[in-house]
Amino acid sequence: MKHFRSPLFLFFLIVVFSASLSSSTIVSHDERAITIDGQRRILISGSIHYPRSTVDMWPDLINKAKDGGLDAIETYVFWNAHEPARRQYDFSDNLDLVRFVKTVQDAGLYAVLRIGPYVCAEWNYGGFPVWLHNMPNVEFRTTNTDFMNEMQNFTTLIVDMMKREKLFAVQGGPIILAQIENEYGNVIQSYGAAGKAYIDWCSNMADSLDIGVPWIMCQETDAPEPMIETCNGFYCHDYKPTNPSNPKMWTENWTGWFKNWGGKHPFRTAEDLSFAVARFFQTGGTFQNYYMYHGGTNFGRTAGGPYITTSYDYHAPLDEFGNLNQPKWGHLKELHNVLKSMERSLTYGNISDIDMGNSVTVTTYATSEGSSCFISNANTTVDAVVSFQGNQYNVPAWSVSVLPDCKKEVYNTAKVSTQESVMVAEDAHVSGIQWSWRPEMAEDTILKGKGDVVASGLFDQKAVANDASDYLWYMTRVHLDKSDPIWSHNMSLRVHSNAHVLHAYVNGEHVGTHFVKDGKYDYDFEKSVKLVHGTNRIALLSVTVGFHNYGAFFEKNAAGINGPVSIVGYKGDERIEKDLSGHQWEYKIGLNGIENKVFSPDSASNLKWSTQQFPTFRMLTWYKTPFDTPSGNSPVVVDLNGLGKGEAWINGRSIGRYWPSFDADNDGCSEECDYRGPYDSNKCAFKCGEPTQRLYHVPRDFLNGNSSNTLTLLEEMGGDPSMASFKTIGVGSACARAEENKVVELSCNGKPISAVKFVSFGNPTGKCGSFAKGMCDGAEDAEAVASTECVGKMTCKLEASSTVFGAADCGDLAKSLAVEVVC
Hints:
This protein is of the alpha+beta class. It has 5 domains: 28-325, TIM Barrel (Alpha-Beta Barrel); 349-414; 423-438 and 594-729, Galactose-binding domain-like (Jelly Rolls, Sandwich), CATH 2.60.120; 456-572, Galactose-binding domain-like (Jelly Rolls, Sandwich), CATH 2.60.120; 740-822, Rhamnose-binding lectin domain (RBL) (Jelly Rolls). The protein contains 15 helices and 41 strands. The strands form 9 sheets. Strands 4-5-6-7-8-9-10-11 form an 8-stranded parallel beta barrel, surrounded by 4 helices. Strands 19, 32, 35, 37, 39 and 41 form a 6-stranded antiparallel sheet that branches. The chain has a 6-stranded antiparallel sheet with strand order 21-30-22-27-24-25. A hairpin with a 2-residue loop joins strand 28 and strand 29. Helix 8 runs parallel beside helix 9. The longest helix is centred in the N-terminal third of the chain and has 21 residues, at 188-208. 47% of the residues are buried. The model is unreliable at 1-5 and 7-22 (pLDDT under 50).
């Protein structure tokens, strides 16, 4: 039987084929920019890590990023989260990478997939699974066959997953770039010739996967073709690609910094961050990514370090909870809009620079269609008056003025007119609190020395616990009698340790705790102990607080108790040590409560909790309480002030480690923050002498709607859970400043404006929260004018002009508006 193909059917095939071709996006690059379907593009991206937020948060975060002027979302892929045990994979819940990328696509944004699979990212062990470390003879990030096989297996798994879902741009998906390895150039010299061979292998392996979009290697000046090298740092304006055929790309513009337990709160101003961005585009950059745009939360035990906090806020444009971090978010949005208006000239224009002296530079991008200009003043103290093409421009120190038509300044990085939101944590008035408790039930461990594994000698915690828990017990016994050379009335236990926290017990008694405060993770712990004739039992609890995530050979950093462990006695002035390191040791991985999942709503009903004789400041104690869901839709936190150290769960889901008893240093903070001059992670830090972290994010999708919830705490060091409280995070007040004839917009993030606290048009002084009228001022009824426009409304706009606020006789002084409203 003949098959007949009608002209209509053939036309249908052509249409279908053409449609499939039209959905494909061709991504490439030349020396100026990433090209999309043959057109050079200005691309502005922001990092949002899917495991550091929740599935329900993703659409809101991504849409706020889009509203902020981003083109793309960049994320790492977290190997140890997805392959916690070899060949056992997890892509569920907030590890659903495919769903995350599709959410980016649904928002109409591009995606940049940084597979790594080494990520650093202040993530536990830099993203490497500890089982990989425990494979015989494995070395990380070098020409080690077993390591490369595992790396290739995981990378291929991710690439194939994206291909199956048609998520690469060439398939019609949003992924326009992918990354292999991560910041290897920072450590390559430590690996010698093997490092160069390894990075060449990475390039060949990635290229062989045929993803149809370019691969990038950040911080890799020796990136082999066809890899594109990129820059990371606080500033990348001076960066030039080693390969002249590569565009100038910035994969990590650090919007702030991360926090360590015992560290201060980092703060990077909107003025400095926008200055860095504008200078990068002034000097030929065409792709820029914020690290982070939303930092989020290190749920569970995902924080690395050691000693990285649960909060990963990073002082990003979207805060840990997803709120707009104003003025940073809005000030950058204005810059993005201006840069997009200049895309044609920035990507195709001829570039020329004029050095005006005293760190002032004018850069012109000229095309046949028109020109765009930047005027940068990199002087850290002196403002500049610049004459250019018949006009004068006032350019403050450490700022960039942007002139899309080379005539009118439409943006200056130091002139912030976006509102500043003052965030507050308000009592959530949660009902239903009723605390109960139970001990950790560690008697078998502390008194009897019963473990899971018996071995002669001391072993690294990674090798024994395989990262199944932060906790590992080391237990042994020692027999002493009067004839023992070490026996005396003055004896001590000495432990050489690499544990981040060490709790020591002798014959059931807690003899001491040591935790690292100064970054010295290799130390000696020694305490006087009471030993008896006969058998003495020693139990040492080693606690990790995130494994190292950065540096050459970081996998070789020891963890746990590596010894020697000894009993010390004295005969007169003679010190005698009895080394126990080679004894038979029993090991117990984790704690009984965690093993029995006492934090889970489905935990066994025979687990007894008590409300009687409620203990506080008791080590290794479990606490729990029911609580009702806070009303409204504002982000929820639990304030754990009064607790010591441990981990917290909401309805069985871990919200991370807590350590509110660890205060930041008293020194290094200042009342005023001068944005001028190079930023580093210590500049403008605040909250000296305060707990590094008191507030812990409770995502609303962890809560049970209007029904009761359960908060469970594992208190390791001792604290008072009755001091804990639930709060909601919102805008308490909003402030704005604007030059004459500019318009400010004020809002309370979904709440009505309740009052105008201050308004002045003239030359007001001070800052948000402490504004004051200056030497000149406009109308006396300015507050009434602003109240009419703003009070009771979700959003209001005010023009900084004499028409609105009356004439202010300021002479030669420039006039401006300052306003503060209460939410």
